[in-house]
TrEMBL record, chain A:
GO cellular component: mitochondrial matrix
SMART domains: ETF
Free-text cofactor note: Binds 1 AMP per subunit.
Record-linked InterPro entries: ET-Flavoprotein_bsu_CS, ETF_a/b_N, ETF_b, ETF_beta_N, Rossmann-like_a/b/a_fold
Oligomeric form and interacting partners: Heterodimer of an alpha and a beta subunit.
Species name: Friedmanniomyces simplex
Gene Ontology MF annotations: electron transfer activity
Family annotation (CDD domains): ETF_beta
Biological process terms in GO annotation: amino acid catabolic process; fatty acid beta-oxidation using acyl-CoA dehydrogenase
PANTHER family in the cross-refs: ELECTRON TRANSFER FLAVOPROTEIN BETA-SUBUNIT, ELECTRON TRANSFER FLAVOPROTEIN SUBUNIT BETA
Name this protein carries in UniProt: Probable electron transfer flavoprotein subunit beta
Purpose: The electron transfer flavoprotein serves as a specific electron acceptor for several dehydrogenases, including five acyl-CoA dehydrogenases, glutaryl-CoA and sarcosine dehydrogenase. It transfers the electrons to the main mitochondrial respiratory chain via ETF-ubiquinone oxidoreductase (ETF dehydrogenase).
Compartments reported by the entry: Mitochondrion matrix
Pfam families named in the record: ETF (PF01012)
TrEMBL record, chain B:
Organism ancestry: Eukaryota, Fungi, Dikarya, Ascomycota, Pezizomycotina
PROSITE patterns from the UniProt entry: FAD_PCMH
Protein name as catalogued: D-lactate dehydrogenase (cytochrome)
Domain FAD-binding PCMH-type: 136-315
Protein source organism: Friedmanniomyces simplex
GO MF assignments: D-lactate dehydrogenase (cytochrome) activity; FAD binding
Start and end residues of each stretch annotated as Disordered: 44-81
Cofactor annotation: FAD
């Protein structure tokens, strides 16, 4: 039975409980001074990786948390390690916004360098909603993929993934190595406990740059405009039944 | 980049599916009852709203499958549970003429709920007559909802002349029966006085009608990056004027201080209809007796607060929450000392919860507790500051210290807003959880810190000794005794969760609890007030001279005694 080496890419995004605001120039969502945390789907990925190890059905040799982005991304790598990842790899890129294809290409190189045989990704990140990276990575590696997983079981080399589709569930089976992307109902991510946060501080966190992988942050897409949705028309209040009737008449409803 | 908010509904599902915190099934389906809703509430606020709405007014619409006994059984009339209380014969009964007068005065149908001249069903009065703990139930047949200060003045002037007793009422989320009538007093409900009058974002002074709901007030000043200096569990229901009238304490007192300091001015209507306009926006004003202080915590016994002027501090942009498990109460005190030492200026809450309270919360809500193992004590620490990095650094240093010194045994830190809410739910959800099995005896006490928790232990011992308590067996009235509270303010909430309200339990508790507190120079009511529940026990915390002086004040303002009678002192 082969040992499983898991790669879990995570992204630092605006906390989903924060109401996003479009910047003044209408070019992007305002990110300065806004609370950030780990992309919720990525939390599910980390949790699942750790659970695979805890279930002890297959030997999990390594769980590598990976992130590409500004220095602050290290915070979420530490969180990932506090949740149970063994080590972190941070590709520092301060300026450019990486696109799904660029990330997939980068991940391919990481997979090859780290001899990964299972990549668990969030199905999408909540900031750009692309839902592409996992699929692109599977294509680049020519590996089988199971997207939007709601249940993952591995026995030996065989991985069985249940995924929710319109009108029911679909069960897929494939052999490692493979790509899995996670969906809402897969698991319930744990809290990072204090002792584990302390331990995570001592876990190895490697820093690299895009250049180390022979890549650059080439842009293929251009954001033309970012706009808030049209505000909802507010309702009115009436004092009593008569008020309501006259209002309805006014609107031509009765 | 496509807008982020598109994913919000999906993520909300994620959160519901994943955490289930604060979302016990019986609450999820319950429609909101508060009269006003904000369209743009933050998810945290919404959660709270849902979680807290059971703490609001009528509990008649509590989902029956969860509490069959409660939904069916009627609440006892206060006059039956307090047979010694007799209706004061000086007070006139409401007549048709009186109702006619009020109709002319208020001028709108929505302003009057009339059971005197009309056949209005008792259930319509339920939310005004009974409290959310289902402990008190009055027999009022007339509810007035004035919209302006002038109308309040007109109503009171008439009531005073006619000797009609009144009960001022806000969101009715009080815990001592102060906001519901005892007999047939007229309820003056302030929910229609709900406008913000002004806000100055330089000084942070908010002037608003007293019927504005606390959460809305907080959201309003939040848009200007300020924070309402009061936060409490019932924030989706309670009204700011009533918060002042009861001198509510809550979760932010440690950081922002009490109402007595934050209120800059009040507009009150005195029983004779006089409008006392002291809506000052000044922080300093040393000219004569500070009369507004009498209305803060006056519980509507000397007048009705119609508007408040309050100082709102800057809202902190960086908030962190940590939740610990500790081995003993001594360790809790050590943790508190360290928190003050190392987090001093950013510490905004230090809350204590015992293991029983967390178990109760877990059982009632079905929510998973944040820590794996069991610990006798839990603490929640919140820091609020202006600089995330600075705060995190401090918090991390603190955490490292308390871990390495073995002051805390285990703990978690909220890594996201969702986790932050879930951790707070473990504290805020206790009050409601205590109700889950039928009823709860609540004591809200100020005690010297070193002895704070001994009361809970002694109470537990007492119930173990007298055979009234059992965790599972339905035959025993008491389910559990839990202790939690605002460690930062030396304020303990002692809750006795019961399966039914029971005379034996009550006899065992009172005046035993009060004597215990009195012996240690504590207060028998730290923040809940006196109302009807604690009226008879004021002597345990105040001297005879003090009570006499209070009586004189009452007489000066309200010679006919029409304001919130049978209660307070």
């Amino acid at each position: 039975m082969s040992k499983v080496r898991i790669l879990v890419p995570v992204k630092r995004v605006i906390d989903y409980a924060v109401k996003p605001r479009v910047n003044k120039a209408n070019t992007a969502v305002e990110t300065t001074g806004v609370k950030h945390s780990m992309n919720p789907f990525d939390e599910l990925s980390i949790e699942e990786a750790v659970r695979l190890r805890e279930r002890k059905k297959v030997p999990v040799e390594d769980i590598l948390a990976f992130s590409a982005g500004p220095a602050k991304s290290q915070d979420i790598l530490r969180t990932a390690m506090a949740m149970g990842a063994d080590r972190g790899l941070h590709v520092v890129e301060e300026k450019a916004e990486l696109e799904p294809l660029g990330v997939a290409k980068l991940l391919k190189k990481v997979v090859e360098a780290e001899k990964t045989n299972l990549v668990i990704l969030g199905k999408q990140s909540i900031d750009d909603d692309a839902n592409q990276t996992g699929q692109m990575l599977a294509g680049l590696l020519n590996w089988p993929q199971a997207t939007q997983a709601s249940k993952v079981e591995i026995e030996g080399d065989t991985c069985t993934v249940t995924r929710e589709v319109d009108g029911g569930v679909e069960t897929l089976r494939a052999k490692l190595p493979m790509i899995i992307t996670t969906d809402l109902r897969l698991n319930e991510p744990r809290y990072a406990s204090l002792p584990n946060i302390m331990k995570a501080k001592k876990k190895p966190l490697e820093k690299k740059t895009l250049a180390d992988f022979g890549m650059d942050a080439e842009k293929r897409l251009k954001t033309v405009k970012v706009e808030e949705p049209a505000p909802r028309q507010g309702g009115g209040k009436v004092d009593n039944v008569d008020g309501m009737i006259s209002k309805l008449k006014e609107l031509g409803a009765i | 980049m496509p807008p982020l908010h598109r994913t919000i509904p999906a993520l909300r599902r994620l959160r519901l599916a994943n955490t289930a915190f604060q979302q016990p099934a019986h609450l999820r389906l319950r429609p909101a009852t508060a009269p006003l809703r904000c369209l743009h509430v933050t998810p945290r606020a919404q959660e709270q709203e849902k979680a807290e709405s059971t703490t609001s007014a009528s509990s008649a619409d509590h989902a029956p499958q969860d509490a069959p006994d409660r939904a069916q059984s009627k609440i006892k009339y206060t006059s039956d549970s307090y047979p010694d209380l007799k209706r004061d014969s000086r007070f006139k009964k409401v007549s048709k003429e009186d109702v006619e007068h009020f109709k002319n005065l208020l001028g709108s149908e929505a302003a009057i709920l009339d059971g005197v001249t009309k056949e209005t069903g008792e259930e319509d009065f339920e939310q005004y007559n009974s409290d959310w703990m289902r402990k008190y139930r009055g027999q009022c047949r007339l509810v007035l909802k004035p919209e302006t200060t002038e109308q309040v003045s007109g109503v009171l002037k008439y009531c005073n002349e006619q000797c009609l007793a009144v009960v001022p009422q806000g969101g009715n989320s009080g815990l001592v029966g102060g906001s519901v009538p005892v007999f047939d007093e007229i309820v003056i409900n302030l929910s229609r006085m709900n406008k913000v009058r002004s806000f100055d974002d330089v000084s942070g002074v908010l002037v608003a009608d007293s019927g504005v709901i606390l959460q809305q007030a907080d959201e309003y000043v939040g848009e200007h990056n300020h924070i309402f200096p009061l936060d409490l569990g019932a924030k989706g229901t309670c009204q700011i004027g009533a918060n002042v009238a009861t001198n509510a304490g809550g979760l932010r007192l440690l950081r922002y201080g009490s109402m007595h300091g934050n209120i800059l001015g009040l507009e009150c209507v005195l029983p004779d209809g006089t409008v006392m306009d002291d809506l000052s926006k000044l922080r300093k004003n040393n000219t004569g007796y500070d009369l507004k202080q009498l209305f803060i915590g006056g519980e509507g016994t000397i007048g009705i607060i119609t508007a408040i002027s309050i100082l709102c501090p800057q809202r902190s942009s960086a908030v962190n929450v940590a939740y610990f498990g500790l081995q003993s109460y001594e360790k809790v005190m050590d943790a508190f000392k360290e928190a003050k030492k190392q987090l001093g200026e950013i510490l905004s809450a230090f809350e204590l919860m015992d293991a029983q309270s967390q178990q109760l919360y877990h059982q009632a809500s079905g929510a998973k507790l944040p820590l794996e193992g069991e610990h006798p004590f839990y603490c929640l620490i919140e820091t609020s500051g202006s600089n995330t990095e600075h705060d995190s650094e401090k918090l991390n240093a603190f955490l490292e210290h308390v871990m390495s010194e073995e002051i805390v045994a285990d703990g978690v830190v909220a890594e996201s807003e969702t986790q932050l809410q879930s951790l707070w739910a473990c504290r805020e959800g206790i009050s409601e959880a205590g109700q889950h099995w039928g009823g709860v005896y609540k004591y809200d006490l100020s005690l010297p810190l070193p002895e704070l928790y001994s009361l809970v232990e002694d109470t537990r011992k007492m119930f173990e000794g007298n055979g009234l308590m059992h965790p599972e067996d339905e035959k025993f009235p008491v389910k559990d005794v839990v202790g939690y509270g605002h460690m930062g303010d030396s304020n303990l909430h002692l809750n006795v969760a019961t399966r039914r309200y029971d005379k034996d339990v009550e006899k065992a508790l009172e005046p035993w609890v009060y004597e215990w507190v009195s012996k240690r120079q504590g207060s028998i009511s730290a923040e809940h007030g006196l109302g009807l529940a604690k009226k008879g026990f004021i002597g345990y915390s105040r001297s005879e001279t003090m009570i006499k002086l209070m009586g004189k004040i009452k007489e000066t303002f309200d010679p006919n005694g029409i304001m919130n009678p049978y209660k307070y002192i």
